[in-house]
Each structure stands twice: as C-alpha cells, then as structure tokens.
Amino acid sequence: MRIDLHTHSRVSDGTEAPSELVRSAVAAGLDVVALTDHDNTAGWTEAAAAAQDLGVALVRGIEISTRYRGSGVHLLAYLPDPSDAGLAAELARIVDGREDRVPAMLDRLRRLGIAGATEEALAEITVDAAATGRPHVADLLVRLGAVRDRDEAFAKYLADGRPAYVDRYAAELTRMIGVVTAAGGVSVVAHPWGRGSARVLDEAAFAALVEAGLFGIEVDHLDHDVAQRRRLRAIAGRLGLAVTGSSDYHGTGKVDHHLGVETTAPDQLERILARAAELGSPTELVGAA
Ligand code: AMP
Ligand code: ZN
Ligand code: FE
Ligand code: FE
C-alpha cells in the first residue's frame, strides 16, 4: 500500500493538469494520492474523475498558507467541505493576497532590467492556475532567459530578502486550524522544519496547536534530514499526533520530489480518515478499490 499525501497540479504551482497528475500517480505505483494545491480546491473535480477512471484512491486536500509568530507555515487540510462558508472566505482572502502582490513583483523585476516581466507574459503561464505563486514568476524568468530554473529564480530574485520578494496575506495558523476543523477537515502541518517555520515550531508550539485541533505532522519530507525526522517523530509520539510522509510533488517544477519518494503508513491514513468521519466528512475515497 503506497500512500502519498501531498502533491500539486497546475491549478497551483505544479506542472501537470490534475488528471495528468492522477495518471502519474498510477504510473508511480501509488494506491492513494492526495491532491493538495495551494489555497484552492479548483482541481478536485477533475482529479476525482481521473481517480475514478484509473482506480486510484484520491484524498481531496489543500495546502493552506498560514503564519505563526511571524513565520510562514503551510497547513495541509484533508477532506474539508469546500462549500463551507468560513473556509471558502479564508481561501478567497489568501488567493486575493496572492493576486495583489503580482504587479509589485513584476514591477520590481522590470526595474531590475527584465523588460519582459509583464502581466500579459505571466498570464500565459498562469492560464490554469487558480492561485498565482512565486514559482509562476520563476517560470516566466526562465522563459525570458533571465535564469536557468526555478531554484535560480528564487536564489537571485524571489526568495525572502531577495530584490523582487513581496510579502502577502496569510491566515493565522491557530485560527486556521479552527476554520479547517469547523469545515470537517483534518489539519496536518506540512514540512514544519523546512525553510522558514523551523524557528517557531518547537514542541511547546505543537502542544498549543494540538489544543487548537491540530491532528498530525508531516515528518517524512525531503526538507527534513534524518535527525529532524527522529525528533519530530518523538514529538508526535508524545503529543499523540499522526505522522505522515509525502513527496510534495510539483511535476517538473521541483527536482527530486518524485511521486512516492516519501510515503505515509496505512495506519496513519486510517487515523486521518477516522478523524474526518468524526468531524462529519464523507471519507469514502473516490477511486478506492
Ligand atoms: P508563494 O506561495 O507564491 O510564496 O511561493 C512559495 C512556493 O515557492 C513554495 O510552496 C515552494 O514550492 C516554492 N519555493 C519557496 N522558496 C523556494 C526556494 N528558495 N527555491 C525554490 N522554490 C521555492
Ligand atoms: Zn508549491
Ligand atoms: Fe509547502
Ligand atoms: Fe507543497
């Protein structure tokens, strides 16, 4: 049983359509795949249809941009009701914040001498995206010949502290966990000790987040080394949190993050599904055998 609980399609900053991603999941030998695009659910319907056709189980998810004590934290929400008004309003606000910063980023790039960094040029790259992100701007810089790949675009221009970086709105993490729970979703912190959030997410912070309704931690992720995984697993054990593993696949947009490169144990997925059922969400996975 191979389970990958964190992937992105072109609906955010991945490079495959949702149906192509599901096809790739089958080719990679996965039994269960979660589609977790950034801050939106626009890919769910297409992914579900493909999962049904191809006989792979789909977990509908979202990777939500949040902030905790000043640092960015990504929150995975599994099986929430997308029509829940509270959740929909929060996601709309985040997506609006993403759109608002785009002209400012492009303006900075033009001032840095990259004349082709226009909204028209970016629009060609984001046709399928319900949420625009820095990786799309990176792809534009690649297309314009300003950098070789996304990594160089972040290193030169787009990472926090680089000249074209522009901040944006993110929901407060503790409050967002409450919003997700109210929508029947199960909250798992994504790559907690990857870039950015490591400083703020210590054991005391996780304990407070458990009080707010946090259910799990994504431990097995390429951003974490062996020692970090051991410590995160110990924290999860002490706090009774579920442990997940996933690829954070972005198609060709993120090197090494192949589908199934990290996986989640079946008993941990069972815990997540049981929690979703407790919260009143339908947990029969589309395409499940
Ligand atoms: P955004 O959500 O638009 O702020 O962009 C954040 C996304 O860009 C993350 O989800 C990562 O996939 C990617 N990213 C962030 N920092 C880097 C980096 N230094 N190098 C490559 N990709 C990055
Ligand atoms: Zn991403
Ligand atoms: Fe993330
Ligand atoms: Fe991700």
Protein architecture, described:
- With 289 residues, the chain is of the alpha/beta class.
- The chain has 2 domains: 3-91 and 172-278, Metal-dependent hydrolases (TIM Barrel); 99-158, DNA polymerase, domain 1 (Orthogonal Bundle), CATH 1.10.150.
- It contains 10 helices and 8 strands.
- Strands 1, 2, 3, 4, 5, 6, 7 and 8 form an 8-stranded mixed β-sheet that branches.
- Helix 1 runs parallel beside helix 2 (44-54) and helix 5 crosses helix 6.
- The longest helix has 27 residues, at 85-111.
- One fe (iii) ion is lined by residues 63, 74, 190-191.
Briefly say what this structure is:
α1 links the parallel β1 and β2. The protein contains ten helices and eight strands. Zinc ion binds next to loops.
Descriptive key words:
289 residues; alpha/beta; TIM Barrel; DNA polymerase, domain 1; 2 domains; 8-stranded mixed β-sheet; 10 helices; 8 strands; binds adenosine monophosphate; binds zinc ion; binds fe (iii) ion
Task: Indicate the topology.
Blueprint: E1 3-4, H1 18-27, E2 32-35, H2 44-54, E3 57-68, E4 71-78, H3 85-111, H4 119-125, H5 134-143, H6 150-158, E5 171-172, H7 173-182, E6 186-189, H8 203-212, E7 216-220, H9 226-239, E8 242-245, H10 266-278
Parallel strand pairs: 1-2, 2-3, 3-5, 6-7, 7-8
Antiparallel strand pairs: 3-4, 4-6
Helix pairs in contact: 1-2, 5-6
Bound molecules: adenosine monophosphate (AMP), zinc ion and fe (iii) ion (FE) (2 copies).
Zinc ion binds at residues 8, 12-13, 38, 135, 250.
